[in-house]
Structure formats: structure tokens, C-alpha cells
Amino acid sequence: MTPDSNDETCRPAAIDASQMSDEQSLAAAVNEPVALCAHDPAWARAFELERDRLRALLPGAFVAIEHIGSTAVPGLAAKPIIDIMAAVESLEGVDTLIERLCDNGYTTSAEFNASLTNRKWLMRWRDGHRTHHLHIVVAESAQWHDRLAFRDALRNEPALARRYAELKTELAVRHQDDREAYTDAKSAFVRAAVLASRRG
After folding, report:
1. How far apart (Å, rounded) are the C-alpha atoms in residues 85 and 87?
2. Model pTM score
3. Torsion sign (Cα): 162, 5, 11, 155
4. d(CA 139, CA 147)
5. CATH number, domain 8-140, options 3.90.78.10, 3.30.460.10, 3.40.47.10, 3.90.1150.10
6. pLDDT tens digits along 95-150
7. Quick one: how far is CA 73 from the chain centroid?
8. DSSP helix, strand, coil percent of the chain (3-state; round to 5)
9. pLDDT digits (tens, 9 = 90+) for 156-177
10. What distance in Å separates the CA atoms of residue 131 and residue 113, rounded to the nearest whole number?
């Protein structure tokens, strides 16, 4: 079945995130069913609005802010959550940024972030749904370049994007109730695409 942005099944049922602790919010995200929506051109504008809000909220904190993930690729089906990658000069002192972000619409898990060595992760909720993921990484790091390389490969190579769409659709059915398995199952495709972009 082709994902349909007008099909209510492409969005999980709303939950009241305002009453959840950080740990409960993370658990809700991890355990949410995998559901893909047809590409929505409004996702590009949603990124721009949040990018501008982040710049105004934390002037000078980010070296660059990019739209990544499937919502950043025109025509590609995706979970309707805007993935944003924000680059900082160093992760030293990043906890202060995270506190400010959590005072302004984001939530996270301190325990989960403590397990990450090269990035930090936050999410934003609205009307009972996650709307944004924010990945804070070091500018010019391998992670920064690899995520942009994968996005750009999908944008520039329609055949690659079609293969990825087919894989995502298949995996969303196979791993509907296991988001981590869904993500892990895509990793080999992503790695191969990044390696190919480096050689190209």
C-alpha cells in the first residue's frame, strides 16, 4: 500500500505528552508504531520555521542548521516528524543549550543523552504528536557529513530514492511495532549510499 497523507493510519493516535516525564516521553516515542505518510511539501516550510525559531532562541549557538531525514527529500514517504541537525563547535557546555531548549518546547532523556558520545537528541511534541527531532552534533564531524551526504544522495538520485522508499515501505510493515528494528534494518542501505557518495 502506498502511504497516503490523507490516511489517518499514517499518524499514530495522539497522546498527552504534557503530563509525561522525560523518561515517559522517550518511551512513548520508542514504542510508537511505525507509520509512513506520503510526502507533504509543507514539511520544508515546517523546517524553516523551526530553524528560524531556534536561531532566535539561541543566537550564535549553532554553526549551521540543516533539514535531514526523509522529510527533507521531495517525494519521499516518511514518518511525519521533521528531523533537524544543528551543528555546534563543541559538545562542551551543550547541557546549557539543552536546558534552554527544554524550557522552550523540547523534551529529552538525560539518561539516553548520557549514552551518546558524539551527539545529543531532543524531540518536540504538539497536539499529542511528535513534530520534530533535533540532533545536535559537532560541526564538520563525520556524523554531520554523513547525514548530509545521505540526504543529498537521495535528493539527487531518483533511482536511489525509489529503492529507499520501497525498503522503508517493506520495513514499516515488517517492523510496525518495533521502531528500533525498523531503524536498524535501514542502516546497511544508508551506509552503502554514504560510501558510494564518498567514492563519487
Report:
1. 7
2. 0.87
3. positive
4. 12
5. 3.30.460.10
6. 999 999 999 999 998 888 888 989 999 999 888 788 999 999 999 999 999 999 99
7. 12
8. 50, 15, 30
9. 999 999 999 999 999 999 998 8
10. 19
